[in-house]
């Protein structure tokens, strides 16, 4: 371990090359900030789902479709509401392994695909089983997004604005909840609020969330960069350097880009050496060994 005086000196030297924190840092890192805002559509979907169902659950047209299963406050309403969070919990558990196995960007695309399946099942509701199954599958998707988006944003961000960009996810969740309430309120009047209420009153709030999900999936597949950290972990060091330079809008020879690249590489080497010391039996590159390290660590 380095002496404390040397450590302090190195930290002070590193701060000389750090950019501006706060709002100035977000402006000067406009490209990274824009990517983080786009990726946080995943948080908006999570928040929207949490708020949307409370609006449609009491609609007359929706209750007719599920034969009044959750018409009154009680256990049935609790089950139909909370099953989304159960799916989110399962989706989050799977996410750590998936993020390392196929990458942050591909995991986001997979989560969007699963999410869309859940929404389509809910949109075809003819019994409460459709609602329960659809919301569980939707939960798998938004649970995965709730973990992978902050991870992706953190790994793209420079240290001085990393906290701000990760917080964008939480802002997106609360914004999604607010939007869901207003959409639910407006759609509640389609066809009236009683027996004449149209199916569109609950179908529109359910189906409209497909739009941002599809936009997020296409954007991640076509336009968004891979995480520099994942590129380093998979041995693509040169591509990691190029992505960092592109994100910072600088050349690959820039001193700040080089420092950040070396920090990513040092962390990867540290984790690799620590893993080899703790779990020598799981050091082959198979996905099974990576999963066993994840379970035991």
Automatic annotation (TrEMBL):
**What is the first-listed, main subcellular location in coarse terms?**
membrane
Q: Can you name a GO cellular component term?
A: membrane
Q: Name one GO molecular function term.
A: carbohydrate:proton symporter activity
- Keywords for this protein: Membrane, Transmembrane, Transmembrane helix, Transport
Annotated compartments: Membrane
Regions that span the bilayer: 32-49, 107-124, 130-152, 164-185, 200-223
Superkingdom as given in the UniProt entry: Eukaryota
**Family matches, as Pfam families:** Sugar_tr
Q: What SUPFAM superfamilies does its record include? A: MFS general substrate transporter (SSF103473)
- Where do the Major facilitator superfamily (MFS) profile domain residues begin and end? 35-297
Q: Which residues form a coiled coil?
A: none
Q: How does it sit in the membrane?
A: Multi-pass membrane protein
Q: Which family does it belong to?
A: Belongs to the major facilitator superfamily. Sugar transporter (TC 2.A.1.1) family.
What's the protein name?
Quinate permease
Q: Which organism is it from?
A: Penicillium subrubescens
